[in-house]
Design a protein that fits this description.
Mean pLDDT: 91
Number of domains: 2
Low-confidence stretches: none
Structural class: alpha+beta
Largest sheet: 9 strands, mixed
Distance between the termini: 69 Å
Number of strands: 17
Order of helices and strands: EHEEEHHEHEHEEEHEEEEEHEEEHH
Number of helices: 9
CATH architecture of the largest domain: 3-Layer(aba) Sandwich
Helix content: 25-40%
CATH superfamily of the largest domain: P-loop containing nucleotide triphosphate hydrolases
């Protein structure tokens, strides 16, 4: 199971460690935070103990109003479940009692200057990506007109060369050779690099290129939502047809279905232009437009006029 340590959180969000410097190795396996409320009054039927517990102004103000005996009871009921850590937001102070209870139970207590809602939003977004199921595939990932596109094909087919030409036209590289796919939801697939290949593009006869050093920051993008899969194949005579609209093909990654098309390579064929056209056509289809349907409507309209 994927996990993130409390130390990772402290570094990612610049959190101040108030208690538990020696416990920052504790692991977090759940993507969202929890704000204890009903738990303070003893209701634990649905307490998500494996989640990070966030204490905002509402929770801390409530605890400040309690007597020492009441605080020990209310907080003690929560710390005994040993959640991964507590995070206090809005740089709130007066936490001596909370500090003591966390020390006794060996639970890290951290603090951020961020307001509660802002911190939770950032935390959830980070953790959903960090803990998302992932897989690595042999492909090239590019961002074309803001659209995440996978370029697949056998080794040596020319995927990286196509990506290089796309970069020259103002599009962005995400990952070359190895693409890491993360499933963020039932219909959401994120493509990114594996850190080692970040910003690098390998071209046969030329070698390894750093696209940021060569073409500037605009040539690279950290991640992109995958919307289209393009399979590059060798040219086969008479294999292509001119039907008005081909049957929609798809591919599946970790249960997420992505539209897929095949583009055959041939010397002199504007493959990059075809890929750009495919991306633009995908946008139109998302808006409910079909060129084939409009063409057929025109044909039917012309036939009706002739019959009259």
């Amino acid at each position: 199971m994927k996990s993130v340590t409390v130390q990772d959180l402290a570094q990612q969000f610049d959190l101040e460690v108030l208690v538990g410097e020696d416990k920052l190795h504790r692991r977090i396996t759940k993507p969202r935070t929890h704000r204890p409320g009903l738990e303070f009054i003893g209701y634990f039927d649905f307490f998500p103990m494996e989640h990070v517990q966030v204490l905002g102004k509402k929770e801390i103000t409530y605890l400040h109003q309690l007597t020492h005996k009441q605080r020990r009871l209310r907080i003690g009921n929560i710390v005994k479940y040993h959640p991964p850590c507590f995070i206090v937001t809005s740089d709130q102070g007066g936490l001596q009692y909370l500090t003591q209870f966390c020390k006794e139970e060996g639970i890290p207590l951290l603090r951020t200057k961020e307001p509660t809602s802002t911190f939770i939003e950032k935390y959830d977004a980070y953790m959903i990506k960090a803990l998302a199921p992932e897989t690595a595939i042999h492909a090239v990932c590019v961002n074309i007109f803001g659209l995440g596109v996978l370029l697949r094909g056998k080794s040596g087919i020319g995927k990286s060369e196509v990506a290089h030409t796309l970069i020259g036209r103002g599009h962005r590289l995400v990952a070359d050779d190895i693409v890491v796919l993360k499933k963020l939801g039932p219909d959401t697939l994120l493509g990114t690099h594996n850190r080692t290949n970040k910003e690098f593009l390998a071209l046969r006869s030329v070698g390894l290129l750093n696209v940021v050093r060569l073409y500037g920051r605009k040539a690279f993008q950290e991640e992109t939502r995958i919307a289209l899969d393009i399979h590059l194949t060798e040219w086969e005579k008479d294999a292509l047809n001119n039907e008005l609209e081909l049957e929609t093909q798809t591919c599946n990654y970790m249960g997420v279905t992505i539209p897929s098309i095949e583009i055959q390579l041939q010397p002199g064929r504007d493959v990059v232009g075809l890929i750009e056209a495919a991306a633009n056509n995908w946008y139109l289809q998302q808006q409910g437009y079909s060129a084939a349907e409009e063409f057929i409507q025109r044909l039917e309209s012309d036939m009706e006029k002739k019959e009259k």
